């Protein structure tokens, strides 16, 4: 039984486990880009060919790239190895400044913390918002950080990157049913609107209005999962106004209707 630090872990099966796995997670390993055995590449390719979902955490993206699974796709890894991944695999579009990339059956994340974000994203996709939120509460982590949010790159700044607007985002989350403006958000953060917009983009990878829209859609998802409220009532409660507006954004962001979503996820939370 190998050990890591003060805890141990057992590996009861070998590569044969990949032959029938629905989701395969390749963890990070050091050093970044260390050659992996040919049989590992072959097992990953075989699993991908039969439709398994392949996920990498941190430096694990190099294994996916070596197996040819990232060719023609977008991918990410820890920021300190992104340049190496791009140089070694020019056929891969490496995005060094995001938390994770979802390309359908192939998903990659940045560092270990971003791996949690990606795993919660997968749970949210498979089991719904309520299940992901419950897990996030147990982990004491944010239930939702969009994949496009910037990695926390080292900066010459006395402010902890990613934390300066946390209180304002939490404040907005409790007021999704109200009108939220840039001026109001900036005032809560005690910043000028211009500074607020710049800082918000740095911390979340999106504009405030895009972030609020996604938060409202996620709040609607949870209500669809856990209540029998009408679509119109839910739209009003989450600040989207009308049922038609909610349906529009649901279709655009999730490619399903609210009723289809409810039929799939109702009661799973």
Automatic annotation (TrEMBL):
SUPFAM superfamilies reported for this sequence: Class I glutamine amidotransferase-like, Homeodomain-like
Source superkingdom: Bacteria
Domain (HTH araC/xylS-type) ranges: 166-264
Keyword terms of this UniProt record: DNA-binding, Transcription, Transcription regulation
Pfam families associated with the record: DJ-1_PfpI, HTH_18
InterPro entries xref list: Class_I_gatase-like (IPR029062), DJ-1/PfpI (IPR002818), Homeodomain-like_sf (IPR009057), HTH_AraC (IPR018060), HTH_AraC-typ_CS (IPR018062), INH-QAR (IPR052158)
Gene3D superfamilies: 3.40.50.880, Homeodomain-like (1.10.10.60)
UniProt keyword Cytoplasm, yes or no: no
Signal peptide range in chain numbering: none
Name listed for the protein in its UniProt record: Helix-turn-helix domain-containing protein
Species the sequence originates in: Micromonospora cathayae
Classification of source organism: Bacteria, Bacillati, Actinomycetota, Actinomycetes, Micromonosporales
């Amino acid at each position: 039984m190998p050990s890591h630090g003060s805890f141990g872990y057992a590996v009861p099966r070998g590569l044969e486990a990949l032959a029938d796995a629905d989701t395969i997670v390749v963890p990070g390993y050091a050093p970044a880009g260390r050659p992996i055995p040919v049989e590992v590449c072959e097992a990953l390719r075989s699993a991908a060919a039969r439709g398994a979902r392949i996920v990498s955490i941190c430096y694990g993206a190099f294994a996916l790239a070596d197996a040819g699974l990232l060719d023609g796709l977008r991918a990410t890894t820890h920021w300190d190895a992104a340049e190496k991944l791009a140089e070694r695999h020019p056929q891969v579009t490496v995005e060094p400044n995001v938390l994770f990339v979802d390309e359908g059956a192939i998903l990659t994340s940045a560092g270990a913390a971003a791996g949690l974000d990606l795993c919660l994203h997968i749970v949210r996709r498979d089991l719904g918002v309520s299940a992901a939120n419950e897990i996030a509460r147990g982990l004491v982590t944010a239930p939702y950080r969009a994949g496009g949010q910037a990695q926390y790159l080292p900066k010459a700044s006395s402010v902890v990157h990613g934390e300066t607007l946390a209180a304002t985002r939490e404040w907005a989350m409790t007021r999704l049913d109200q009108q939220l403006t840039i001026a109001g958000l900036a005032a809560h953060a005690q910043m000028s609107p211009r500074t607020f917009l710049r800082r918000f983009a740095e911390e979340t990878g999106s504009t405030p209005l895009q972030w609020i829209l996604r938060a409202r859609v996620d709040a609607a998802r949870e209500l669809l999962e856990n209540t029998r409220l009408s679509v119109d009532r839910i739209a009003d409660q989450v600040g989207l106004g009308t049922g038609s507006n909610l349906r529009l954004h649901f279709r655009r962001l999730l490619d399903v209707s609210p009723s289809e979503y409810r039929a799939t996820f109702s009661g799973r939370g």
